Each structure stands twice: as structure tokens, then as C-alpha cells.
Amino acid sequence: MFTGSEPFLPFTRPSIDEETIAAVVDVLRSGWITTGPRCRELEAALGARLGGRPVRVASSATAALALALRIAGVGPGDEVVTTPLSWVATSNVVLELGATPVFVDVDPATRNIDLERAAAAVTPRTRALLPVDLAGLPVDRDRLAALAARHRLRVVEDAAQSMGAQWGGREIGSFGDLVSFSFHPNKNI
């Protein structure tokens, strides 16, 4: 049992320089604790990086996924094809909307959703595909787009672990209908 007094190998180790600390202090002193000018600056910078796509920050990647699925029209009785190899939030937001997560296994070579199995899981009730990029390795965006187009499905990308990654020279976040990133300390940024 870990009591906290023994040496511990951390899952993440933050690297925070003085410039970052000063920027946080500036925000705290500004009085804008949430959704202030710095959030708008981040949205504009990330949107520019993603080819001009509109960007909105949320309180968490979970909140962003829930919002994205709502915008995609997911609701009671719908199905969303996704992978169980993710944080529970990915499937919980589907359940929160009254829809059913349809789990398909991962490709053993990539640990990402197996798109052939995803195609086989599509039914008339399927409304969206919810792929999860794992450990900075993106799901094959070309095959994902073809699958979505073939079945007229929305794509909501859980890219919490792939900010800054690319597919075919394009930034992750510039594909699909909607995308959710994360700034949690253990994510790849």
C-alpha cells in the first residue's frame, strides 16, 4: 500500500518555468479567473493553428466532448461507435445524452479504434463516430473520413492525447466535424 512517505515514480512530472509562473500570476492579478481575455487569445491562436477553425475552450475535455456530441445531434436512442480503450468520460458523455456507446476493439498495431470493426458496428441508429487518439498516435484520418462519408456519420474526435500531432501533414483538430483536446498535465502537448 502506498502511504505517501515512500519514494514514488510520478505518472507525470510538470516542467514549469518562471515565464509560465509569471503568466499565471498575471492572470490571477487581472481578476479574470475564467473565460477572460487569455481564453480568447488561446482560442484565436489554436484556431489559427488549425487552419481557421472556430475554437472554444471548456472547463474540461469531458465537457468539450459532451458539447461536441450535442452539436453533432447525438441524443436518446442514438448509437455512437467508439473504443473502450479510453478514459471513462468518452463513453460516459454518450450515456449522459441518452445514447448508447457501441464499443469496438482496437487495432493491435496502433491501439487505436479498429476502423474495419467500426464499419461493421454501424447500424441505422448510429449517429456518430468517436475515435480516440492514444498516446499521441492519431487514428487514420483518411480511412475515418471515408467511413463517416460512406455512412453519413458525424465525427467527434477525442484528441485529448494528440494535440500537436499530424496526419498527412495536417494538424490533428483540422479533421472531422468536432474535436476535443485536453490540457490535463498527463496529456501530450
Based on the model shown, name its key terms.
189 residues; alpha/beta; Aspartate Aminotransferase, domain 2; 2 domains; two-stranded antiparallel ribbon; 7 strands; 13% strand
Give a brief description.
The protein is of the alpha/beta class and 189 residues long. It contains six helices and seven strands, in the order H-H-H-E-H-E-H-E-H-E-E-E-E. Strand 5 and strand 6 form a beta hairpin.
Structure description:
Helix 3 packs across helix 4. The model has no long low-confidence stretch (mean pLDDT 91). Strand 1 (79-82), helix 4 and strand 2 (100-103) form a beta-alpha-beta unit. This protein has helices at residues 18-30, 37-49, 61-71, 89-96, 115-121, 141-151, and strands at residues 79-82, 100-103, 126-130, 154-158, 166-167, 170-171, 178-180. It is an alpha/beta fold. It folds into two domains: 16-57, no CATH class; 58-180, Aspartate Aminotransferase, domain 2. The protein starts with 17 loop residues before the first helix and ends in a 9-residue tail after the last strand. 33% of the residues lie in helices and 13% in strands.
What's the structural domain tally? 2
What spatial order of strands do you see in the largest sheet? 2-1-3-4-7
C-alpha Rg (nearest Å): 18 Å
In CATH terms, the superfamily of the largest domain is Type I PLP-dependent aspartate aminotransferase-like (Major domain)
Mean model confidence by pLDDT: 91
Instruction: Characterize the biggest β-sheet.
Output: 5 strands, parallel
What's the tally of helices?
6
The CATH topology of the largest domain: Aspartate Aminotransferase, domain 2
Which CATH-level-2 architecture of the largest domain?
3-Layer(aba) Sandwich
Query: Regarding quaternary structure, how should these chains be classified?
Result: single chain
Following the backbone from N to C, one meets helices and strands in this order, namely HHHEHEHEHEEEE
Helix content: 25-40%
CATH class of the largest domain: Alpha Beta
Low-confidence runs: none
Shape: globular
Helix/strand/pairing class, anyone? alpha/beta
Q: Hey, roughly how much beta strand do the residues contain?
A: 5-15%
Distance between the termini: 32 Å
